[in-house]
Amino acid sequence: MKSRLLVSALCLFAPMAANAACAATDFVIKDFAVSAGSTGMSTKMVMKGELVNNCAEPAAAQIEVQAKDSNGNVLQSKKGWPAGTTNIAPGKSVRFDVGRQFHYDPGMQTYAAGIVSVRSW
Question: What is the topology classification, in CATH, of domain 22-119?
Answer without folding.
Answer: Immunoglobulin-like (2.60.40)
